[in-house]
TrEMBL record:
<feature type="signal peptide">
    <location>
        <begin position="1"/>
        <end position="26"/>
    </location>
</feature>
<dbReference type="InterPro" id="IPR001611">
    <property type="entry name" value="Leu-rich_rpt"/>
</dbReference>
<feature type="domain" description="Leucine-rich repeat-containing N-terminal plant-type">
    <location>
        <begin position="27"/>
        <end position="66"/>
    </location>
</feature>
<keyword id="KW-0732">Signal</keyword>
<dbReference type="InterPro" id="IPR032675">
    <property type="entry name" value="LRR_dom_sf"/>
</dbReference>
<dbReference type="InterPro" id="IPR013210">
    <property type="entry name" value="LRR_N_plant-typ"/>
</dbReference>
<dbReference type="Pfam" id="PF00560">
    <property type="entry name" value="LRR_1"/>
</dbReference>
<protein>
    <submittedName>
        <fullName>Leucine-rich repeat protein 1-like</fullName>
    </submittedName>
</protein>
<keyword id="KW-0433">Leucine-rich repeat</keyword>
<dbReference type="Pfam" id="PF08263">
    <property type="entry name" value="LRRNT_2"/>
</dbReference>
<dbReference type="Pfam" id="PF13855">
    <property type="entry name" value="LRR_8"/>
</dbReference>
<keyword id="KW-0677">Repeat</keyword>
């Protein structure tokens, strides 16, 4: 069953409210992903199998689901796609891997990504992302890998994100080749329990 909550562009429903009213027999994850597809340019047709008439997206290429048919992986690395990340991705609450590196993804990182509390890997590197890192990404306590390098991000790295290194499970934080201000160093003085933190070398005094 296909739910067309993405159809209206004029009515904005808070994501948390929407998640609570979606019927149990309606796979809204297919709507989320298909709605994202409609905003992407896909010259190589890698998303051709993303058919909204199917009961769920678990048979689509580049999508992995768990035993309950909930989406756990989106693998679109080096897929040749362009366009934005959409806030509705924050509804994929079982997602563990968001792999969208090596494309031409533009715009900002939606703050709603911070709702994906089961996320282990967030790989958005080598895209055209702009704006700042949302503070909400500091909610991703299960995250082990956050690779945002080679974009056009700016501002400072939120303290809540740095805390994922200090008190969380984050092992790799790569924000190099962006336009961030300030410095981050993997030294004992900082007290960060971390495998690797990579910041722009030109900013490290």
């Amino acid at each position: 069953m296909y739910c067309s909550f993405m159809a209206s562009k004029t009515i904005l429903i808070p994501l948390i409210l929407f998640a609570s009213i979606v019927p149990a027999n309606c796979n809204f994850e297919a709507d989320v992903l298909y709605g994202w597809k409609t905003k992407l340019t896909d010259p190589s047709q890698v998303l051709q199998s993303w058919d909204p008439t199917l009961a769920n997206p678990c048979t689509w290429y580049h999508i992995t689901c768990n035993s309950e048919n909930r989406v756990t992986r989106v693998d679109l690395g080096d897929a040749g796609i362009s366009g934005p990340l959409v806030p509705e991705l924050g509804l994929l609450t079982n997602l563990q891997y968001l792999e969208v590196y090596g494309n031409k993804i533009s715009g900002s990182i939606p703050k709603e990504i911070g709702r994906l509390t089961k996320l282990v890997s967030l790989d958005l590197y080598r895209n055209h992302l702009t704006g700042s890192i949302p503070t909400s990404l500091g909610n991703l306590k299960s995250l082990k890998f956050m690779r945002l390098h080679s974009n056009k991000l700016s501002g400072t790295i939120p303290i809540k994100v740095i805390d994922l290194v200090r008190v969380g499970t984050l092992q790799v934080l790569n924000v190099s080749d962006n336009n961030f201000s300030g410095t981050v160093r993997p030294t004992n003085i900082t007290g960060y329990a971390v495998t690797t933190i990579i910041q722009d070398p030109k900013l490290e005094a």
